[in-house]
Write a structure and sequence with these properties.
The chain is an all-alpha fold. It has eight helices and no strands. Helix 2 (about 20-35) packs antiparallel against helix 3.
Length: about 160
């Protein structure tokens, strides 16, 4: 089952299958194995690609109900709600994404850069410096752990 899911993800992310085909593949896997967080994520991602945001939300939430460690669902949900103009929910899910994926460079770096830029725009120079300093301290404290995690994941 794990290898079939991995192949389905590779095909989906590499655009070897259409979103519709990906949905069918993940549904077929779940028909054989039962509910699966990875499959719900794959379906949610495909639904999002089809701009069927309500079904994407449903599937991301199903994945998180099964396994809250599927933090990519938090990212997907954050992007959907940002696109819908619901910044409060977008921020909530992005915060959850960062919480469950603390070594995710994208979230942490982007968040701190955005905070810094926002503070600079408002001429709050001390706060802008703090946003960058906090990021620097985080990176110094966590780079060894992050490197180890990525080294493990790539092997």
């Amino acid at each position: 089952t794990t290898s079939r899911i991995c192949v389905a993800f590779c095909d989906q992310q590499g655009e070897a299958t259409s979103p519709k085909e990906s949905i069918e593949i993940f549904q077929d896997i779940m028909k054989e194995t039962g509910p699966n967080a990875a499959c719900y994520y794959g379906i949610g991602f495909a639904m999002e690609a089809q701009e069927n945001v309500d079904r994407a939300i449903f599937n991301y939430e199903q994945a998180l109900t099964i396994d809250q460690n599927w933090y990519l669902c938090f990212f997907g949900l954050s992007q959907i709600f940002y696109q819908k103009g619901d910044e409060r929910r977008g921020d909530h899910y992005f915060f959850m994404f960062e919480k469950y994926a603390p070594y995710n460079v994208y979230g942490n770096f982007e968040t701190h850069r955005d905070l810094c830029a926002d503070f600079l725009d408002r001429e709050k120079f001390v706060e802008a410096e703090a946003a960058i300093q906090t990021l620097s301290e985080w990176w110094i404290d966590n780079k060894a752990a992050a490197r180890q995690k990525y080294k493990y994941m790539s092997s």
